[in-house]
């Protein structure tokens, strides 16, 4: 088998003849760009997005606003509408009406979050404009039962919602359709 140099190209039928070196060079630049852009976004200061939430008659508007802000910070997807986060958070108000322990978990968790935010930044969690600063506070409470409850509900509530799958490029289960082998899995024309 003949060995090719770094700059030689392999031309298969229907390919453009991109060299291995060029592919790695451009692919590496794209990977660095993808790593830098999100990190730069953390440092950017932007006002919190308006949130859709129920009246939170049992929990109160401040607690509801904080839970919605947390939801967006735990699983940040700018392209997802607030209604997908609200679908997870809004039922907490109804549950809090009948479950005193659950209501205490949420109110104590938000109070602790706001206490830490005030100590570090002089503002409540929902008032902090920088996502990066809010994430620092979330790291502080990440092991708490409050954080784990919200994170777990969001994980299931957002990513198991069939309405958002297309926004992530996921087509859903494939086994009913014969699997992925004949549906694009082996489509590797870039090689």
TrEMBL record:
PROSITE patterns: TAT. It comes from Aromatoleum diolicum. InterPro entries: TAT_signal. This is Gluconate 2-dehydrogenase subunit 3 family protein.
